[in-house]
Write a structure and sequence with these properties.
Layout: H1 2-8, H2 11-31, H3 36-42, H4 46-64, H5 79-86, H6 89-116, H7 121-133, H8 135-150
Helix pairs in contact: 2-3, 2-6, 2-7, 4-6, 6-7, 6-8, 7-8
């Protein structure tokens, strides 16, 4: 049975499922941030459990195929090694899962934090969309908007 599952969930299929799978969570975070479904689904641990299982499945699959995970640590040595790793399909899908998880986590944090300061969901629209594509830029944009609502510059939360 596991072989049937692994033959269906190829790297390309997982990539498609990941990209389409996070969209409903982002849709809820962007358009319905104060709804009950946002609190139950998008701002909860639920999407990260799913993404974590995908990550574990990928690691198991690549480990059973003989992938050398020690080569991943070469990315810290120089930029050329990082570029070489991105040519590796296994590393790329692991990175992409990581990227989607972190950006979704940041988007959920923005929604929860904005509710603390009673910010309008319309003000969060642009920072959330930017966070979806380029996480750190969206967080900085949100932080700049947040300064006006919190009426203080806070480097710690």
């Amino acid at each position: 049975m596991f072989e049937q599952i692994s033959s269906f969930f190829t790297t390309e299929m997982i990539y498609l499922w990941l990209n389409f799978g996070v969209l409903p969570f982002w849709f809820v975070l962007i358009f319905f941030p104060q709804s009950r479904i946002s609190g139950l689904l998008a701002s909860s641990i639920f999407p990260f459990i799913i993404l974590g299982y995908v990550y574990i499945y990928l690691i198991y699959q690549f480990f059973s195929e003989g992938y050398d995970f020690l080569q991943n640590f070469e990315l810290y040595l120089n930029f050329y090694n990082l570029a070489n790793l991105f040519e590796n399909e296994e590393f790329l899908i692991l990175f992409w899962t990581h990227f989607l998880s972190i950006n979704l986590f940041c988007g959920a944090w923005i929604v929860r934090d904005s509710q603390k300061y009673f910010m309008s969901k319309y003000l969060n629209f642009i920072p959330l969309v930017v966070t979806y594509f380029v996480g750190p830029v969206g967080i900085v944009l949100y932080w700049i908007i947040r300064i006006f609502f919190a009426k203080k510059i806070s480097l710690f939360d």
